[in-house]
Amino acid sequence: MVCIAAFFTGAAESHLSAQQASAQPVSASTSKIDSPLPVSFQTALPPGISFQPGSPVLRTAEHLGGSLVLAPSLDGASTVVEHIDSAGTASNLIIEALIFLPAPPAADPYSAGTQLDSLGLLFNQFSSLQGIQYWSASRKIMRTLYTDVHRLDNPKDKKKIEDPASASELHALLSRPAYIYQKDQTFDGITTEIRCSLSQTSFLMMNTNATPLRLIGIPVLPVDGLRTGFLVAPSSQGVLLYFVTSIKSPSIGRDRVFESASNKALALLHWFADAASARHLIEPVSLPWNFDDLPPEARLARP
User: Are 164 and 151 in contact (CB under 8 A)?
Assistant: First the structure.
């Protein structure tokens, strides 16, 4: 899963013509928890957060700066928190999501190592993000989020290379940063630095924009103005995924950026859930495309 450079699109997209748009229906449903979470996940939930049976599988929070509110107490979470906090200011736009994705019936005995390798490999299929859709609240249509996404050999030469195709290839890449190029329909292309790591219980990915975000050549977001972190922890009963992004606050259009960024976060959750269920890592789940369609109990009030 990739850093969302396109999060910033909402402040500018209303002035541009639509491309590759479609009026796909927006689902307002959100899957529910059907059984208690594993004890290891229940005890790791942040204070005041509960995933009781019958409640939505997703919790979200939007706020300006301040402490992260949805980070679970799992192995590696402190690394993600430090990644976000170290570049943060009181005015940064923060979007968090915590989601539990139930596991399908298993034909083979559960293996945490095998599951982590599969999840880490899925997260590193950057090229599969090309062409994914998101709901544009301003246009009331589905639009293409990324028109181009691919891995680079290094940030200077920018030669296109393939994503890893096996767990062994993935492990060989973990000791050094990776770089990807991504292009949306609004801004110039951007290079993102990505650092991944595996522990015995979780997979981490931390992203930072390595080049400025530009609109027709004009910088609108500096290097390191956008940081994103992911933590995924598997169990025999399902996967707990934590996502957080921090965006240097724009001087104008802050509410529009929040709105656009939130719907793009949902688009990435759709991508992950669809890809993971296709690989039989999780059961299929239903999520809305529009952040405003999330049930109230899934959304923490913005501090």
Answer: no
CB contact at 8 A, 96 and 61 = yes
Angle formed at CA 159 by CA 207 and CA 275, multiple of 5 degrees:
50
What is the residue whose two structure tokens read 């690394």?
A: 79
Dist CA 56 CA 33 (whole Å): 6
Token digits of residue 221: 């977001």
Count other C-beta atoms under 10 Å from residue 55's C-beta. Answer: 16
Q: Find the distance separating the first CA and the last CA of the chain, reported in whole Å.
A: 27
Kind plus residue range of the DSSP H or E element containing 152: strand 148-152
Contact between residue 36 and residue 53 where contact means Cβ atoms under 8 Å apart:
yes
For residue 219, the SS3 value is strand
> 249: buried, middle or exposed (CB in 10 Å: 19+, 13-18, 0-12)?
middle
Provide the pLDDT for residue 17: 35
Q: Residue 129 gets which letter from DSSP?
A: G
Looking at the chain, the number of H-run helices and the number of E-run strands are 5, 13
Spatial contact of 245 and 228, defined as CB atoms under 8 Å apart:
yes
CA distance 25 to 137: 13
pLDDT for res 10: 44
Reading the block at residue 42, the tokens are: 């229940």
pLDDT for 2 = 54
Sign of CA dihedral 274, 275, 279, 282: negative
Residues 6+ apart with CB under 8 A from 195: 177, 178, 205, 206, 207
pLDDT < 70 stretches in the chain: 1-28, 250-259, 301-303
pLDDT of residue 91: 81
| CA-wise closest residue to 77 among 107, 108, 40, 104 | 40
Q: Which residues contact 288 (CB under 8 A, 6 or more apart)?
A: 26, 27, 28, 29, 30, 266, 294
Note the pTM of the prediction, 2 decimals: 0.90
